[in-house]
Design goal:
TIM Barrel; Immunoglobulin-like; 2 domains; 10 helices; 21 strands; about 25% strand; globular
Length: about 550
């Protein structure tokens, strides 16, 4: 199949699509303050129902990577994060404070009380999950997400005490520490089997940022607990880090390089984001596709990774953008520190608008949409495990539905959606339908996004890789692109082909403002996301959405 690249029309700038913050790279940096963002509607009114491959679905926006005052580098109360999430249009969030010795010694009980109080306060507006940003042994940071239940805090305490790399001294990439990570995942799987927890999910965060989550480890983690490890954070938070008003660094804080335990097979380019997405996700035919090409149900998400803002939250005068050394600095006259208490006092706004040091407020920029069967914690987790998810930056689009069906049989039992598998018994003509509702309201930055292009990516499913450290899927490429720069409202795109082997299909879309030939070459990705140069990219002028895949196989 030959790709059909489209070069979006540049044209004159349209003032009606730009807010007053566009200049100087400040658009959406948070300088408006929370009060300038319109309040989101009640949750019951927000589900778009935009994808119904199997019965009625309610699409709920969320964020599985948020920090509170119980993190050693954060500051907001859980109630603050919940309120900010509702204002940002989110339906669910996960509190994922960092695991460390102070957290293990002091934080879990009071954090539990704060989560319970927030659940009660926001019961009809927001689903709040308890979790952890787990320092996975021999790896980097990972979201642990738990279904609500009586044993949440008890399990979290036991898990942190036994398996958090910072607590047990297991950061280095040694075989013994890699084995401990497998033990930890087995423990989590067993907690569900024994009904101590109703459900638990794990998703590695910013997987390529430091290069220490090797391909073999990613595969081994899912092999050890396939119902627990469901994918990774395909696009990191900390997107505001690129703004001059933020930190003038790399999007996602991806501006470093390999370290002692980094996987040697990762190239220099993997330590940067591409269009704001992790290199593993953004590279067509790359790491994510190599997992999908095995037939793995490996899904992507995006999060804010929200930490802190400005304000007088420590007594010592410090650079607001400097995270180092906060945990042992006194924050009151009694000499209390995070290390001694496991908690920071909430921020003091001091009459200034809250500007995150590197991440936008929850829901302002990153959204993960899940197609749930009802509005409940368990339904959100089941939808995530099933792969009924798509992700977007800056509210580029309002809704997305993707279905695959035997040609001429749309809507019946031969129709499947994101995360599902269409099965046929012989070579069969099939049709992919992509239904998009474009943005009709300005986003957090005061801009009305315009979808310029949609790309369809198709790959072959060949079964388990011979080399667990493989990072490529040679049969994957962009097979079709559509110019949508002149379209608005409801858009329907179709693609037909003869299914003759096992494949998967996924789509992405962009505002078309920053593109370059894909990392693996023009034959694979003619017009892909551009690599992000630290301090030189305004994230509001480089918006993308990505779907999770649909599979099809010869039964």
């Amino acid at each position: 199949m030959t790709p059909e690249p489209v070069t979006p029309a540049s044209g004159p700038e349209r003032n009606d699509r730009r807010g007053f913050l566009r200049g100087a790279g400040l658009a959406g940096a948070g300088v408006l303050g929370a009060a300038a963002v319109p309040a989101a509607p009640a949750r019951a009114d927000r589900g778009t129902g935009n994808g119904k491959p199997r019965g009625e679905l309610i699409w709920l926006a969320g964020d599985h990577h948020l920090h509170s005052q119980y993190s050693n580098d954060a500051m907001f109360r859980i109630d603050d994060q919940a309120r900010r999430a509702v204002v940002g249009g989110l339906d669910w969030i996960v509190i994922t404070d960092h695991g460390n010795e102070a957290f293990a010694a002091h934080s879990i009980a009071p954090q539990r009380e704060a989560i319970l109080a927030a659940r009660e306060s926001y019961d009809d507006q927001l689903l709040i999950f308890s979790g952890l940003e787990w320092n996975i042994p021999a790896g980097e940071h990972t979201t642990l997400m738990m279904a609500p239940g009586a044993a949440e805090a008890e399990v979290l305490q036991e898990f942190v005490d036994s398996y958090d790399a910072n607590v047990v001294g297991a950061r280095d990439g040694t075989p013994a520490h890699e084995a401990l990570a497998i033990d930890a995942l087995t423990f989590l799987q067993d907690t569900v089997a024994s009904k101590r927890l109703d459900d638990v999910l794990v998703l590695p965060n910013h997987p390529a940022r430091k290069g220490i989550d090797s391909p073999a480890e990613l595969r081994a983690w899912q092999d050890a607990a396939p119902d627990v490890v469901i994918g990774f954070e395909g696009a990191p938070g900390h997107q505001a880090a690129a703004l001059p008003a933020g930190m003038a660094r790399g999007r996602g804080l991806y501006d470093g390089g390999p370290g002692e335990y980094s996987f040697e097979g990762y190239p220099e380019e993997s330590y940067r984001t591409w269009g704001g997405f992790d290199w593993m996700t953004a590279t067509v035919g790359g790491m994510w596709d190599s997992l999908l090409a095995e037939g793995r149900k490996w899904w992507i998400t995006t999060t804010s990774d929200g930490h802190q803002g400005c304000g007088d939250w420590v007594k010592n005068p410090v650079d607001e953008l400097d995270q180092t050394g906060y945990s042992d600095r006194p924050y009151n006259d009694a000499g209390d520190t995070f290390d001694s208490t496991g908690v920071y006092p909430p921020p003091v706004d001091a009459g200034r608008p809250v500007l995150e040091y590197s991440s936008f407020t929850p829901g302002a920029y990153n959204k993960t949409w899940v197609g749930a069967t009802d509005v409940s914690h368990r339904a959100v987790m089941e939808a995530m495990r099933a792969g009924r998810m798509w992700v977007s930056f800056g509210d580029l689009i309002a809704s997305l539905e993707m279905t695959l069906q035997v040609a001429g049989n749309r809507g019946n039992r031969f129709t499947v959606g994101m995360g599902e598998t269409l099965e046929v018994k012989k070579p069969t003509e099939v049709e992919l339908t992509i239904a998009i509702e474009t943005a009709s309201h300005v986003n957090y930055a005061g801009l009305l996004p315009q979808l310029a292009r949609v790309d369809l990516i198709l790959g072959a499913v060949d079964g388990p890789a011979e080399d667990p450290d493989t990072t490529v899927a040679p049969a994957t490429r962009v097979v079709k692109s559509w110019d949508t720069s002149q379209e608005s409202g409801s858009i329907e795109l179709t693609y037909s082909f003869t299914l003759e082997r096992d494949v998967y299909l996924r789509v992405r879309g962009t505002d078309g403002k920053r593109s370059q030939t894909g990392y693996l070459g023009a034959d694979i990705d003619p017009v892909g996301p551009a690599i992000d140069v630290p301090g030189e990219v305004n994230p509001w002028e480089d918006l993308w959405f990505y779907s999770n895949p649909i599979f099809a196989r010869m039964a």
